[in-house]
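User:
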Amino acid sequence: MRPRLGIGVVGACLLGLCGSVWAQSQWQGTTYPLATSRAPASHFLIIDTGGSGGGFGQGDVRQKLHDVSFWNARLGWTGGYGGLFRTEDGGLTWQRMKPAGGWYHLAMTGPQEVWLVEGWHPGGYGRAFLWHTTDNGATWQEVEQGKIAGYADFFARANLRWVLTGDHPSLCSEDGGVTWREERFGGLLHGNSRIAIPGDVPTDGGFTVYVAGHYQHKFRLVKSTDGGQKWSLLPVPEGAIGVGGALFFVTTQRGWVGGYAGEVAFTDDGGETWESRNLPTDQRVMSLWFDQSGHGFAAVVNTNIFRFRDTLYETHDAGRTWTPVMGGARFVEAIFALGPGQVWCVGDVPGFIQNDLVAILTRETTE
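Assistant: Predicted structure:
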């Protein structure tokens, strides 16, 4: 049995940076905004996958969920250090499908089809794996055995499959995972950490792909308009966002990038220009989700048990103003949504006796 990992690869490679903000592709000193939305906060049901606590390591303590994916309002999967779990009632109850392990990323591509990325610190060949099931988790097949060396991020939708591997060559498939090619991003990145493929406007060569990473330990964001055949460097100031910052594009033109100290940058022209949409905090941004109306959520790190803070923020104006909607002894690491009104968050309940966290949107507010 492989040893369990105590820290994720993204968390291990993040770089610190100053509390500056993004505006028109230039950084200018300012304080973090304290403005909040006038709309009341949305409400989440806070539960877990059903583990049990106990002193001195006793009981079924399920630590930190890293990712979550749903096929429809009922069928979903989530996974983390405490195991891999499946739900058939929208997340209210969960069945364990795999034991404790290094389950980092997953995606549902059918009602019984799941892709799963396993990783063990510090990565490398033989310490990162891609698994695939088509029978609801009864059997699993390893994909591209021996060719995956990292577990930074994963994307699966329609026929596209991407495995980001940090400082190692990544892999891409355009036929649902039947054949794969190695991806090095035109030499523009020394390492990769997050991927976004909006999928709203196809081009002659494929969909637009955004990848965040680093070059000589400085943040970079690259873009391909032909599915990854050719890459270009976007005019984002190097060193402005920590390596591993959150990345989300709701359309090919409209997107957000999250940084190491609460920075959020917004583009409405495909990354050619950026505006500051910072959170009112200096916590690292872990995950972002928005709909096309500008309603969205941002999850930030909240693991200091001696100073619990807010971990989830909401906006109704594309990030111009933010309202905290979840805090205390809770840490949201990942956000998944099927659309407005169907949002799930997963993470951790930090403390001396940890447990995992599942948050289900039950009441959504509108302006």
